[in-house]
Amino acid sequence: MKISSILGLNARSSLFTGKYNSRMAKRIADSKIATDRVLRIAHVAHPKIYAKFKTPSDCLEFKWEELSESFALKPSRGMGGEGIIVVKKRLENKGSNEIIWLTTQKTKVTVEDLKLHTLDILEGAYSMGNVPDTAFIQEYVGRHSKFRKLAYRGTPDIRIIVFNKIPVMAMLRLPTKESGGRANLHQGAIGVGIDIATGITTKAIWHGSEILNKPGSNRKLRGIKIPFWNTILTTAVEGQIASGLGYAGVDIVLHPEKGPMIIELNAQPGLQIQLANMEGLKKRLERVDEMEVRDAEHGVKIAKAIFAGTFSDRVRAEEGIKTIKAVEEVKILDAEGKKHLSLAKIDTGAWSSAIDSKFAKSLGLLKKNKVLWYRKKLSSLGKEERPVIPVIFYLSGRKISTHVTVSDRNLLRYQLLIGRTDIQGFLIDPIVDKENLVKAKW
């Protein structure tokens, strides 16, 4: 990880949170009650709030005995998961009228315990600066089956950094025994980096050091496919848009039945996500700073196109290093997913790949809703903006999902040029295939 690409505390405050996050948006993110309101209005998935307590009388008059079997009691302005009681089920208490619940931490609580805890919240016991707060009861979100053997008791969440409607970095946070079932890295939870394009975990950290397996077990933390990945990314962007934050940390949980839900918004998210991904945030943020993004779906498409991990080491291990020639026959997918044969020039001198405009149009790939963004280029004709579109093709039997620049290649020999970003994991034979060269001339 290059030092120049790392986002530090000062840069985060001066360049991003201070510049792109208004006071109003910060107030919304700092209050879970306000967050619930804006997400509800925008129809963004999040756990329901069953009851709110603003005054002691609200707490004392509430009919606690009518609560469902499972729920969470939280402070609106709590920090780091402090002050949260998560109730998993209601226990049978034969021979007594007292109601008892069991929490996810295997402790028993009564109505009186919940009342006292609520009064503590109202007095500001868990808020920053100990200022008076609001308490609320929220829908219980259990552990998704995918994470049941990876997390200790609590609910894992997925932290996604969203900037300019584009998800730029993500990590899975796994509660441990040390963290008390909380998904907080500073308290001992595990952070696992996630590849934006695929939703597959890549690296993991614990107490700032890289680990391969879950502590105390042989369970690998790399290579885990996160369910509902596209929906998770879209939900995160929708949450950022609804909050008004320009730069946000969006925490998402996977409800076992209902799928992805936003549990919290952060106006100033922590920076350990860079360690979990072994990559700096700064360059990623700068790369998307001035892009024009239409909506959440468009933002997700851009993110998948430009922040895809290479996985070149894994490819080499599974498939071996493949050798390709300077000119290769590829199978490119059109808008309907049908394959078309085409000759492509393998150009190690070009950073990114390019496709001929007429060829792209014939494949149905140049429609307006397919364009990710426009790249400014200086040519003999002056300044021009060239569309960048997503393309899927097969090279030497390997599927490659990428983004390519559209240009007029009518006077050039090949309709498709493949640059360095799309040939990682291959060896290039510089000798040109004469048979393919004849095909290209024809």
TrEMBL record:
GO terms for cellular component: cytoplasm. GO terms for biological process: SOS response. Signal peptide: none annotated. SUPFAM superfamilies: Acid proteases, Glutathione synthetase ATP-binding domain-like. GO terms for molecular function: ATP binding; metal ion binding; ribosomal S6-glutamic acid ligase activity; transferase activity. Keywords: ATP-binding, Nucleotide-binding, Transferase. Residues 36-292 form the ATP-grasp domain. InterPro entries: ATP-grasp, Peptidase_aspartic_dom_sf, RimK-rel_E_lig_ATP-grasp. Coiled coil: none annotated. This is Glutathione synthase/Ribosomal protein S6 modification enzyme (Glutaminyl transferase). It comes from Candidatus Woesebacteria bacterium GW2011_GWC2_31_9. The lineage of its organism: Bacteria, Candidatus Woeseibacteriota.
